[in-house]
Amino acid sequence: MPIVKSKNEKKRVWFAHLFLWVFCAAILFPLLMVVAISFREGNFASGSLIPTDPTLEHWKLALGIAVTNADGSITNPPFPVLLWLWNSIKVAGITSIFVLALSTTCAYAFARMRFAGKKVLLEGMLIFQMFPAVLALVALYALFDKVGQYIPFLGLNTHGGLIFAYLGGIALHVWTIKGYFETIDKSLEEAASLDGATPWQTFRLILLPLSVPILAVVFILSFVAAITEVPVASILLVDVDKYTLAVGMQQYLYPQNYLWGDFAAAAVLSALPITIVFLLAQKWLVGGLTAGGNKG
Amino acid sequence: MAIHCTLLNVGLKEVFMDQAIESGQSLSVRANWIKWIVLTLVSLVAGYAIVLMYAQNETIFALLTLVVVASGVVIFAREDTYSHRYIYPGVAAMVVFIIFPLMYTIGIAFTNYSGTNQLTFERVQTQFLAKTYDQPNSAYQFELYQVENYKIQLHFEKNGENYQTDAFNLGASEPITLAPSNGEKAGTKAAIRFIIQNRDALTKLNIISSDGHPLSMSGLREFSASSPLYQLQEDNITLVSQFDGEILKPNMDAGFYQAINAQGEFVGDTISPGFVVGNGWKNFTRIFLDKGIQGPFIQIFIWTVIFAGLTVLFTLAVGLVLASIVQWDELKGKAVYRMLLILPYAVPAFISILIFKGLFNQSFGEINQLLEGIFNFKVNWFTDPYMAKTMILIVNTWLGYPYIMILCMGLLKSIPSDLYEASAIDGAGPLDNFFKITLPLMIKPLTPLLIASFAFNFNNFVLIQLLTNGAPDIIGSSTPAGHTDLLVSYTYRIAFEGGGGQDFGLASAIATLIFIVVGALALLNLRVSKKQQA
């Protein structure tokens, strides 16, 4: 803390508060607006930030409940939002478990063992990680078309195939976990191996229990990454019932079928759980992000 | 701590001792047996699959399976590759899902693979040979009668003469020969609905006329004699039409069968379906020489660089300033500000981009309604190229600044506070502090992160795809292309949007060029971060 304080310090603090207030208001405007829109009547109505005549019709539709209109007609839910949410959580959850398994074993070898080609592999992984999957979609499509002929539950239009496709993206996680493993003192493992423990036993019984915080970070990061992935999912998944949220939400805003109000409710509903998890885990995630950034 | 460690050590020793005693030698021998059985089984199954793929002309996929499975088996079989067992699953996943698709894409760039040329030459030839034509004046009118035991009987009539089949089951596959009849029909006549319902089974029937021609169903009421349209010549590539004697040869430059004249030159239209052939550097020369592609390509390339550059600049400016303010000790309520400011990063991007798409909507969007209410004008966010680009930069700065802010908050802690004290003694203000201390000290550790951010935004497909899908369109382009398209979304649209004929070859050629840019950025990044550690 600076010891020397200038006279207009107070003015500056007030100015900073004012600036942050205005900035936060501008940043939060779109999010608050969507919450407001989700309670408005119809799909084209305009209005103020606080709806004058709030209605739950969009929320009912988003939750899969049909709405009876004033004229007696019935509006059915346009899309199975809850099913999409479940698909997303299922795919992202299973993906994260596998990603965690693959990247911890990889990171263990990179952090603790000596073997041929270690440096090349580490740097190669980092470089190839930067190539976006969008550019290889034709190849990925052909690949899963082929896989599906031999193993149907991993083919096109299956969640198994999508999970399988996401397993390629582990390089950054390997670096993050490796960095964390290197901060853990080796002496425990050395003691264990003197007592006859195999490398697998020292890994599973000593290193893993000590690394729970970073494993949680990687789990959440890969969970969020899988939930928000669009291009691969939109090429591999064909049926509306198989869609994940990231593919399905686009269906609301086509010019021919513009469902702005319904979209708003579905967006708030599906964004809330992910946002809350992220904010709760924020403290650890920030550490994980910077650790990944300072490629140790 | 020391005591704790010793205790833990003793505990561990017991665990391992117990396991060692329990397991003994018999267990490890058995485990070894199981390992070898599993490895053998995997090799056998994979070997069978590889032979199968190779036999079906899927050489590339056979090779991929061979490399992945063989290296796995070797690594798990040998004792001296013990360390590699830990990295094998992860590396194999990267090879299959990142490196293989990359190579495959580069391979496609040198072919004419597209919506019209999708199949291999052999498959296309088989399709041509399966084509048939109806011989003139060969139509037989038929009626279907249902007789006892769920059997059916067909009665045919041509030029006043009657024929009939024996009663048979509908799924019959053996040849059925027609016999002359006197026109008497037994059983009940089936309605047309029955014929429609069983059309597939009827089409598959193998019926032969009394003079020996095969007949096939050519309408709901008639069968006619049909014969193969093309006959394969002895060179195994030339096809001769049985209908008009036209001679077709594969045009290996175009990837189509085409008619030839007496001199052996290709004449007339190409005949679909086409097949995949290598066309060398043609896709690459098209990018740079074809006017309808070159113009949009260069325009989109420039915009992509500007977009990525400005995004990095804006997110850095906003993120660094906010991080400096939020880290300021005098400020109260920092935690609340921090959480609110990180919020755009916490909301999944695909949802917030779609939210902006709706808010910016030209007719119903809240932003235009607001502007109209206050300033009485509307902005053409999606039809005016400059406004569309402005909108994209606004949205992407909103999406991207929290990440930079988070990184900066971490790095700011490493700047020693006595620097600021010294500057305060010298009477420097906050602006001097920011530009003369914070910024110069932050730029160096931030550089690799900014390069990574540039590379990410260079390929920011999701933003463009969800927000504008490239709109507004570039006029005079021969492929789908828009003013706000980035190279990635341009590539995606060439490959998957119907209008341009799904030109996978061209798309892969552009993708290959992007790979070069990304590869260069990745190497640069690696070098910069290495230099910093040194």
Automatic annotation (TrEMBL), chain A:
Residues 85-281 form the ABC transmembrane type-1 domain. Keywords: Cell membrane, Membrane, Sugar transport, Transmembrane, Transmembrane helix, Transport. Its main location: membrane. It is found in: Cell membrane. It is a multi-pass membrane protein. Pfam families: BPD_transp_1 (PF00528). Gene3D superfamilies: MetI-like. It comes from the Bacteria. PROSITE patterns: ABC_TM1. The chain crosses the membrane at residues 12-39, 91-111, 120-144, 150-175, 214-238, 258-281. Belongs to the binding-protein-dependent transport system permease family. MalFG subfamily. Part of the ABC transporter complex MalEFGK involved in maltose/maltodextrin import. Probably responsible for the translocation of the substrate across the membrane. PANTHER family: MALTOSE TRANSPORT SYSTEM PERMEASE-RELATED (PTHR32243), MALTOSE_MALTODEXTRIN TRANSPORT SYSTEM PERMEASE PROTEIN MALG (PTHR32243:SF50). This is Maltose/maltodextrin transport system permease protein MalG. It comes from Psychromonas marina. The gene is malG.
UniProtKB/TrEMBL annotation, chain B:
Keywords: Cell inner membrane, Cell membrane, Membrane, Sugar transport, Transmembrane, Transmembrane helix, Transport. It comes from the Bacteria. The chain crosses the membrane at residues 33-54, 60-77, 86-110, 300-323, 335-356, 391-412, 446-467, 504-526. Residues 301-525 form the ABC transmembrane type-1 domain. PROSITE patterns: ABC_TM1 (PS50928). It is a multi-pass membrane protein. Its main location: membrane. It is found in: Cell inner membrane; Cell membrane. The keyword Isomerase does not apply. Part of the ABC transporter complex MalEFGK involved in maltose/maltodextrin import. Probably responsible for the translocation of the substrate across the membrane. The complex is composed of two ATP-binding proteins (MalK), two transmembrane proteins (MalG and MalF) and a solute-binding protein (MalE). Belongs to the binding-protein-dependent transport system permease family. MalFG subfamily. This is Maltose/maltodextrin transport system permease protein. It comes from Psychromonas marina.
